User: Which sequence fits this backbone?
């Protein structure tokens, strides 16, 4: 049902509302915004607007400068199908039984839960998938998504649109940026990787694929402007999970769940805004349905990004379960400073055999070889161990790469207990 509630009410309490155009906003409360949702495959915050020096992403940087950039945005799962299933429904993947990656036993969503595109389509939106790019949805359920078009140009006169596009160049395509090659000597490697030419080249290749993706994103944004839609379109750019590297994608470290989140909405979001709130991808679904005036049949798990209540959120949660041919189970709780990970199968290695990673991760091949040779440092060899600790705790302020497990630190037992309790309540 479309509610003519107050887009105005949402905007008035938006912490980064551009008050200079408040009169204009008030005059247009009866109209609903267009929404363009751009997803980057397998990419975290290794962007120049997030401080990465080696990479050149001018179009994404411009988008960030024209709106809000979130510094603590996270996905609920570190792999595409489970992450996207949560994003498309606004519910944690474990709640909807969509938490197994690449399962053949897909099922309908629980009663009362509908995919976001269907909700918007029923509310009168033109719901477009692809817009000339990848039409990937990758959901772990059998329900129809509700997309009615392949491009926003198919909308009727006066009809708002919701468009979801995926830029897939960063999905281990092995493409090189011949115009702006990245010198592997200048990239910054995490301390849990040995510093070898192969790993440096692998890391630099990923950044080059991001540069290629940036060019495509620039074309999408230019098309939006050419069609006269820029000013009444909320643009959202995210990654569907973290970087496609060992100890990144498929794991609950920040390398696997930390993602870029940028939003631009001229006249409504102040340019050059940086937001340090804890947010997750479920919040996007909640924000969209509120702006569209839609009442979902079942309450969503996310929070509206434009409401000040989100500033009080103490934790975000993430989960990892079966992925491809690898069986494992992990849960994570993250505050602004600390990360607690519960390994539900500690007897299993971090680096279990996974065909996808064995074929697509040159860095993993180097780690395997050096582990057999005994030439990894203690920090680097920990990821190759035969078993995992049952619990992990990291101080992200002093240890952003999450290499020092502080779970047995006496001074942090209250922190650990609080996060254990939060996880128990969430589950």
Assistant:
């Amino acid at each position: 049902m479309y509610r003519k509630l107050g887009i105005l009410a949402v905007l008035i309490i938006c912490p980064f509302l551009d008050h200079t155009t408040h009169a204009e906003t008030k005059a247009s409360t009866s109209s609903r915004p267009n929404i363009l949702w751009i997803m980057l495959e397998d990419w975290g915050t290794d962007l120049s607007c997030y401080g990465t020096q080696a990479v050149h992403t001018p179009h994404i940087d411009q988008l960030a400068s024209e709106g809000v950039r979130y510094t603590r945005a996270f996905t609920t799962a570190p792999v595409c199908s489970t992450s996207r299933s949560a994003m498309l429904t606004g519910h944690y993947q474990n709640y909807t039984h969509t938490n197994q990656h690449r399962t053949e036993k897909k099922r309908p969503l629980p009663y009362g839960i509908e995919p976001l595109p269907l909700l918007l389509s029923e509310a009168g939106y033109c719901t477009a998938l692809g817009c000339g790019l990848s039409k990937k949805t990758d959901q772990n359920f059998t329900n129809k998504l509700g997309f009615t078009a392949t491009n926003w140009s198919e909308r009727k006169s006066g009809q708002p649109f919701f468009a979801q596009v995926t830029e897939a160049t960063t999905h281990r395509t092995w493409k090189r940026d011949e115009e702006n090659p990245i010198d592997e000597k200048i990239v910054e490697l995490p301390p849990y990787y040995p510093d070898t030419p192969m790993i440096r080249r692998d890391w630099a290749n990923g950044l080059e694929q991001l540069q290629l993706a940036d060019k495509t994103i620039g074309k999408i944004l230019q098309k939006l402007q050419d069609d006269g839609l820029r000013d009444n379109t909320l643009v959202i750019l995210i990654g569907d999970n973290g970087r496609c590297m060992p100890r990144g994608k498929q794991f609950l470290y920040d390398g696997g769940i930390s993602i870029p989140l940028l939003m631009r909405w001229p006249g409504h979001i102040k340019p050059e805004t940086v937001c340090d709130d804890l947010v997750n991808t479920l919040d996007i679904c909640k924000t969209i349905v509120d702006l569209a005036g839609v009442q979902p049949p079942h309450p969503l798990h996310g929070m509206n990004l434009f409401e000040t209540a989100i500033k009080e959120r103490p934790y975000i949660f993430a989960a990892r379960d079966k992925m491809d041919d690898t069986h494992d189970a992990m849960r994570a709780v993250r505050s602004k400073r600390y990360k607690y990970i519960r390994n539900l199968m500690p007897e299993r290695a971090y680096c279990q055999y996974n065909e996808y990673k064995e074929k697509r991760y040159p860095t993993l091949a180097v780690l395997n070889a050096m582990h057999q040779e005994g030439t990894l440092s203690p920090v680097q060899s920990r990821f190759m161990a035969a078993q995992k600790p049952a619990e992990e705790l990291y101080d992200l302020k002093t240890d952003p790469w999450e290499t020092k497990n502080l779970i047995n630190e006496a001074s942090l037992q209250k922190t650990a207990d609080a996060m254990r309790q939060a996880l128990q309540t969430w589950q």
